[in-house]
Prior knowledge:
Layout: H1 15-23, E1 59-64, E2 70-73, H2 74-78, E3 83-90, E4 113-122, H3 123-130, E5 138-149, E6 152-161, H4 162-165, E7 171-176, E8 179-180, E9 190-192, E10 205-211, H5 218-221, E11 225-226, E12 235-236, E13 243-246, E14 251-252, E15 259-261, E16 264-273, E17 279-285, E18 293-294, E19 296-300, E20 307-315, E21 319-329, E22 352-358
Parallel strand pairs: 1-10, 15-22
Antiparallel strand pairs: 1-2, 3-4, 4-7, 5-6, 5-10, 7-8, 7-9, 11-12, 13-16, 14-15, 16-20, 17-18, 17-21, 19-20, 21-22
Amino acid sequence: MASLPGVEPSEQITPAELRLATRNHGMPLEALAYDVTPAGLHYLLIHYDIPVVDGEAWRLSVGGSVARSLSLSLADLRARPSVTRAVTMECAGNGRARLSPRPISQPWLLEAVGTAEWTGVPLRDLLLEAGVDDSAIEVRFRGLDRGVEGGEAQSYERALPVEDAMRDEVLLAWGMNGAPLPPQHGFPLRLVVPGWYGMTSVKWLSEITVSADPFEGYQQVRGYRLRQTPDEPGEPVTRMVVRSLMIPPGVPDFATRERLVEVGPCVVRGRAWSGLGAVAGVEVSVDGGVSWRPARLGPSVSPWAWRSWEFEWDAAEPGDYELCCRASDAAGNVQPLEAPWNLGGYANNAVHRVPVRVE
Length: 359
């Protein structure tokens, strides 16, 4: 790849990363204004190819260490009592491209997030109907998407401990924002695990297997691990760490996206969320993180969705500013100024910084 003037080779986006970036899109940060993200603006990460699925012929199997196996059609699932939950979902790699050195993968900046209203049936109901064996420790979920990763040909698969799979909020969703799942979001059925990073919510779901043995598949034991070197096992990526993002104020310069704000009062708004506890507060800095003032918290559309906030800034003096926001949660976690580096670029929840010019 040819070098770009003024850009270090280690910071240049490779053609492989560009191919990933054109397949996977983020949510424009101005869409933080919506309580529920329109489906076309919700972030997408598609590991392999989007499978073309015949909804009439498709079936979901539930088996393994259970008293009775199940085979269900989409019509069977839709005929059951359903629930709708607003859930904020974030990619574990959100913020990866802001780390240095940059981990090579989908080059997310900060836009890999969204909140949708998912409609479906609680996973717990199906597991109770199947009868989970006392020896079971995990529930494995297999999607219809297939590819090669880490040198392994595989279907996309993830597993949850039985106690997490049995939580009331975990859904098998066949609807998104009042409509059938779009193909790119997992039609005809996907898993939705509130509070966990998005890699857990397997799309194009085809098989659920209850197991007495730990799942050793690539996405579980090699992908989505917090580690410093390729050789160490690392810690698993699980729940979303606390984060806040702001709607960039003012208007953007087309090429640089630098924000331009007129002199005078300016209301800065955003959203905050955490998979580890309810959002307890948000603070805003207008001087690059030197001093902080509390923002006013608004409501959340559900216990599993982001919470709105706003901050009144008197942009009285022309000049250059760096606006920052950071959130804290009820478990005592606070967004750091800088997040620790890791090989996969996961869970980078460093404070959101937005350069602004007042003129």
